[in-house]
Design a protein that fits this description.
This protein has 305 residues and is of the alpha/beta class. It has two domains: 7-211, Spore Coat Polysaccharide Biosynthesis Protein SpsA, Chain A (Alpha-Beta Complex); 223-302, no CATH class. It has helices at residues 19-30, 50-60, 75-85, 104-113, 153-156, 170-175, 190-197, 223-229, 231-241, 248-264, 269-274, 279-283, 285-302; strands spanning 7-15, 37-43, 65-69, 88-93, 99-100, 123-131, 146-149, 164-169, 201-211. Strands 1, 2, 3, 4, 5, 6, 7, 8 and 9 form a nine-stranded mixed sheet that branches. Strand 2, helix 2 (50-60) and strand 3 form a beta-alpha-beta unit.
Length: 305
């Protein structure tokens, strides 16, 4: 373990009015076979019983818990805060409605230690499979027990579907903080994961280590509305995606979304097109613009705006 850290893992949970669900994450952490970790809870302005729950769990002294409360700023801002507070070498995000299997941390350590020492500086993270509450894999299994590639390649080159979950080196997350945009409270985590993928590899493992319990009021279920309410973050994500070393088809699809959320942000579309450093995409604007505008109109119809 890096001598600058007190724990192997910092488990990090950002939460907002999820006290009724947070107990599942707590119970999963209490059962971990690997004990060298702390749990940081960042309460993003909850008005429910989250604080009293965290206080009681801290008094139980079963696992090290540090609880922080901040004004509602969004998950990405909470992650930035958690990374700076982390005392663990590895930073592992568990959402408030999820929980990990009993040997999750032990598995992560085993796979990390299997990476050859001469290669380990090239890696930023390990990612596992996710399952639902019935034990069914979310998405596709990996074609091998381990795959070592940049994070983006698992989806866009290998075309493996489904959520992946795992840890990043805390030092790497300090190197790649989430941007903070005035008056916006959401930026997709993929923005930072894509940035990291340009420099580091991820080891993907064919292990089912996280149970995901999507909630109707969660980020996953209201993705469109959240992006519409935070269009500058969406624009930044799609613009940066266009610089990834991926096929033109992937870039064109995301260029349409870049223009779509430019409409939501009330941006000057001609200037948005000029800002893209890709001549072929700019030429294709004659095809992309009508599609983007129709999607923008449909977004407003879907959300009754």
């Amino acid at each position: 373990m890096n001598n600058t850290y007190s724990y192997q893992f910092t488990i990090f949970t950002p939460t907002f009015n999820r006290g009724n669900l947070l107990v599942n994450a707590y119970n999963g952490l209490k059962k971990q076979s690997f004990k060298n970790f702390e749990w940081i809870i960042v309460d993003d302005g909850s008005t429910d019983n989250t604080e009293s729950l965290a206080t009681n769990w801290t008094k139980e002294n079963i696992i090290p818990i540090r609880y922080f409360k901040q004004e509602n700023q969004g998950k990405h801002a909470a992650i930035n805060f958690g990374v700076q507070e982390a005392k663990g070498e590895f930073f592992l995000i568990i959402d408030s409605d999820d929980y990990c299997v009993d040997n999750a941390l032990e598995k992560f350590m085993s796979y990390w230690n299997d990476i050859p020492k001469e290669e380990i500086s090239k890696f930023a993270s390990i990612m596992s499979m996710c399952i639902d509450k019935n034990g069914k894999i979310i998405g596709d299994e990996l074609p091998a027990q381990t795959i070592d590639i940049p994070f983006t390649d698992i989806y866009y080159r290998l075309k493996i579907k489904g959520d992946k979950w795992g840890f990043f080196l805390t030092n790497v997350l300090k190197e790649f903080p989430f941007p903070i945009i005035d008056n916006e409270k959401f930026i997709t985590e993929a923005l930072v994961w894509n940035r990291i993928a340009l420099k580091y590899k991820t080891r993907f493992i064919n292990e089912k280590l996280l149970v995901v319990a999507y909630q109707n009021d969660g980020l996953s279920s209201s993705s469109l509305k959240i992006r519409m309410e935070n269009p500058l973050g969406a624009i930044l994500y799609y613009k940066e995606f266009l610089s990834l070393p991926l096929s033109f088809l992937w870039k064109f699809r995301n260029y349409i979304n870049y223009l779509r959320f430019s409409f939501h942000a009330k941006k000057q579309i001609f200037q948005q097109i000029i800002d893209i450093n890709n001549c072929l995409l700019r030429i294709c604007s004659v095809l992309a613009l009508p599609v983007a505008y129709l999607m923008y109109i449909n977004d407003n119809i879907k959300t009754n705006k």
